[in-house]
Every structure is written in structure tokens, then in C-alpha cells.
Amino acid sequence: MTITAPTTDAAPAQDDGEAMFDALIEADGRIEPRDWMPDAYRRTLIRQISQHAHSEIIGMQPEGAWITRAPSLKRKSILLAKVQDEAGHGLYLYSAAQTLGITRDEMTQQLIDGKARYSSIFNYPTPTWADMGAIGWLVDGAAICNQVPLCRASYGPYGRAMVRICKEESFHQRQGFEILLTLMRGTDEQRQMAQDAVDRWYWPSLMMFGPPDDDSPNSAQSMAWNIKRFSNDVLRQRFVSMLVPQAAVLGVTLPDPELRFNDETGQYDMGEIDWTEFHEVLAGRGPLNRQRLQNRRAAHDEGAWVREAAAVYAAKKSVARTETAAA
Ligand code: 3HC
User: Fold this and answer.
1) CA distance 179 to 137
2) What are the residues whose beta carbons fall under 8 Å from the beta carbon of 68, sequence distance 6 or more?
3) Tens of pLDDT, residues 30-53
């Protein structure tokens, strides 16, 4: 069944719009910016997409800190490209959120005021080069598991932005794996450095998927609206199943003594995640929450002249266009 959204400029009356919205969701169709949508659907999308955008922007910091210290020119240019990709992901996502009626300035203000969430994972430190490998393998790997299903999110601009983002995340994951593989083929010290980084990032990467299903207030409604396609626990389990064979290739140990395949369930049994740590990080008390936000605020302040210059340039162009049109 093909269901098409209204094509007139006028917004549809609520009753028609609601019926159209329900039918599109039922048919697994796409909602576009000018379609009628429930306020709660709009709010949920603004919440999730803006949090995601903020995560990409804050996520530039842990790796940005290693650009000047990457061990070769090649590693430096790869890392630089990866950090630039993350800035690009943030921009696509802010643009997708803007189609829902929030401005980029509002979202930025919420972030720098400490009122918006961003992913817990970016509040952890990166003390060694091996952390670049572990972030790529584990953090980008978790991002792929979580985000590939979002390419089918019911909101068109979000789903389309995710297609490109996932392609780039896939490259990020492979470069992380390759850094770890190189270290694991190196000296004893390099192997130890890789293992230590995996130990540091494994549990926080599992937390990226969000709280357990029975403690996730948003999942049921987001899944009913086809925004999320799978629950937090289902994606976490999928991620671990992906990691186990890759860890064997790398020769690293995943730091969970209770991790084993359960023949009866066909899934991996895992140790308990430290949810107290997760909630502490969400409450702003993670290892580097304060520093990440301070850096973001400083970058925003230092960029004020660029925004002002761009605004003056845009205003001058607009005057010139008006004068040309009037001539
Ligand atoms: N870090 C911070 N907050 C988290 C979180 C995490 N790891 N997991 C959950 N939360 C927050 C939720 O945002 C929600 O807060 P709110 O209600 O105050 O907004 C609360 O905890 C309850 O969680 P729910 O499971 O009910 O929330 P969601 O249904 O929104 O699910 C999610 C959480 C799975 C993270 C989902 O929002 C999602 O899939 N988001 C899109 C992907 C995303 O944002 N990824 C962030 C990482 S970006 C990245 O990986 C960059 C790359 O370059 C590595």
C-alpha cells in the first residue's frame, strides 16, 4: 500500500493529519517535515536528534586531543579526517533537528548551559594512543550497532542523515580495529597498552546503548513510532555477539569474566553493568564531564567572531539581492 502525504501548502487539519500520520506509521512509511505529527513525536525526535548531534560535537574532544600526538603523518591525517567526520555528523543532525522547529542556536545554548544530554561515553579520558584504537573499535562499533537501524527511522530527515553517518562510522570502526591489530602485533608493551585501553572502554561502550529495557522510559513509545527499531538490550546483545569473534582475531580479552555463550538462549550471558557509574556520568559526575563542557563553552566563545562575520556577510548579500531584484 502506498500512502502519500498531503501536498498542499496549507497544514492539514489535525483530524486528517492524525489519520495520515497513523496510517504512515502503520505502513512503515516516512514522516516529512511538513506533515502533521503529534507534539510528543516532535519532542521525542528533537530530544534524540539533538542529543545525538551534541554527542558528535563533544565526541570530537577525546580524539582531537591526540591529533598532534599521533605516531605518524598517516595516522595523523586519518585521525584528523575522522574528527572532521564527527563535526559533519553533528551538522547533519542539527540540520535534521531544525526541520522540527528548533534552531541551532537554541540547541547549542542548551548544550553549553549543561541542560542537554550527550552520550556518556565521551566523558572518559584517553591517556594513550591505544585509546584511539579502542574508541574506533568499541565506541564506533557500538555506534554502528545502534545507528544502522536508525537509517530506517520514521522521520525522513533523520533516517536520511543516518545513512551517510553510518557509512563513515564503518570506516571509523575499521581504523580503530586496525590500530589495535597493529599494536597487538607489536612489542609486549604495545600489546599491554592495547589490552589496557580495551579494559577501559569495554564497559562504558556497553552503556552507550542506554539503560536496561525495564528502566528505559522512552523505548516503548519510540519503537511504536518506528524511531527506534530495537530495544537497548537487544542492540547491546547484538554488539557483544559482534565483538567476541573480533576480540579473538585481535588477541585481546574482553574484561568480563562472566561472558560466555549460552547454548540454551543462543545469546551471550554477561556480567552486570555498573549502572551506578552510568547514572553518575549522566548526572554530570563522570571523569571528564566538567572539562568537556568547559572546552565546548570556550570553543563557542572563541568562535563568536566567525558567527558575527558570517551574519554580517549574509545580511550584506541579502541587501545586494534585494537591490538587484528591485533594479
Ligand atoms: N548517554 C547519555 N544519556 C543516555 C545514554 C547514554 N549512553 N543512554 C540513555 N541516555 C538517556 C536518554 O537520553 C534518556 O534521557 P532523557 O529522557 O532525559 O532525554 C534517558 O537516558 C533514558 O534512556 P532511554 O533508553 O529511555 O532513552 P532513548 O529511548 O532515547 O534511548 C539511546 C537512548 C539508545 C541513546 C537513543 O537516544 C539513541 O539511539 N540515540 C541516537 C544515537 C546516539 O545518540 N548515540 C550517541 C553516541 S554518538 C556517537 O556514537 C558518535 C560517534 O562518532 C562515535
Assistant:
1) 9
2) 76
3) 999 999 999 999 999 999 999 999
* Site residues for ligand 1, CB cut-off 6 Å: 47-48, 51-52, 55-56, 59, 86, 117, 119-120, 139-140, 143, 146-147, 207-211, 216-219, 222, 228, 232, 282
CA-based nearest residue to 94, from 45, 36, 148: 45
> How far apart (Å, rounded) are the C-alpha atoms in residues 216 and 318?
47
Q: Which residues of 253-291 are buried (b: 16+ CB within 10 A; e: fewer)?
A: ebebeebeeeeeeeebebeebeeebbebbbeeebebbee
Pick from 218, 207, 185, 217: nearest CA to 278: 207
Single-letter amino acid, residue 283: A
Q: Nearest CA to 240 among 267, 200, 266, 279? A: 267
Probe target for ligand 1 pocket from 52, 89, 124, with the most ligand atoms within 8 Å of CB: 52
| Residue 302 grid coordinates | 572563541
Which phi-psi region, left, alpha or beta, contains residue 312 (left: φ > 0; alpha: ψ -120 to 50)?
alpha
Give the residue whose CA is nearest to atom 18 of ligand 1. 117
DSSP, collapsed to helix, strand or coil, labels residue 127 as coil
Contacts of 55 (CB under 8 A, 6+ apart): 118, 119, 121, 122
CA of 52 to the centre of ligand 1 (A): 7
Residue range 77-98, pLDDT digits in tens: 999 999 999 999 999 999 999 9
Computed over every residue of the chain, the mean pLDDT equals 95
How many Å apart are CA 266 and CA 94, to the nearest integer? 39
